[in-house]
Amino acid sequence: MAKKTFIGTLSLLLALGVAGVASARDLSDCERNGSQARMAASSTNKEKLVAPPASASGCPDLSADAKAAAPAAQPDTANASPAPQAPATGALPAEVGASSIIHAKDFTVLVKRPENPSAETLVLLHGSGGDETTLMSLASRMAPRAVLMGVRGRVVQDGKKRWYKRITPTQFDQNDIRGEANAFANFLAGMVKVKKLDLDHTTFLGYSNGANLLAALSVLHPGLIERAILLRPMSVLDKVPEVSLSGTRFLVVAGGADQTYAPLAPALEAMLRDHGARLEVRTIKADHGLGDEDVKVVGDWLARASAVSLN
Fold first, then answer.
1. In a domain, 24, yes or no
2. What global pTM score does this model have?
3. What is the mean pLDDT of residues 286-290?
4. 176 φ, ψ to 5°?
């Protein structure tokens, strides 16, 4: 009921032309001194994540099979169909196994359907320096039968795409966070209104900067998100509204060797619990980069979540 009320309110705002807009430019919040994980192409075409030399983006989201199919520092297009066609605005691919790029409410979206799709959709929010393609390869291993929807953040600084403006590696523009959260919520409401997205069968997955936006979105627009996976997150809101997250389930995956952000994850976990969210927390042997253990942890959690929803 809360979700329907929320969607109805946002639909009215859409009709009035209200949308959060951010023109700020920002740097990557996963760029830092010290131990920063990066990925590079494997010498073979195996689905394995390894630590490479520094990349241009500084945000290691790509798996080795994707990097092997694309030049260094290029987005992950390994799983994309050749030359995907962009249909009319708001259209999603109807063909099984299809891949389409769409543009809706100021957001660029890549939608991919597996050969044998389930009723579930996984909405992907990349980390700093990524884009709508970056998490596709990894997500296809986490949820092989889910429809994947990769969304590109609107904020750009020094050529790096982000979800909100950064001031320092651990301090962020509060107005920009709220503005971009509002814009993303309006985008989702529009997709629901035209029946292109069913939030009852949607899980959100965010990495780093994208995970932080999801966590902020959950408290700024309670009732919108039911299930979210937060990879290498931290809390970014200085002031958190007093809302209930009793209907939201989170998986938080921190990297034990992530020297900058792992120490900040407990504050986010405490905030989510204090607001009533159902929370599972895992700390794995990893730094800020993503790897095979993330695939296993997320895949297991999604399988359990699916079993619960069926019961």
1. no
2. 0.73
3. 97
4. -70, -40
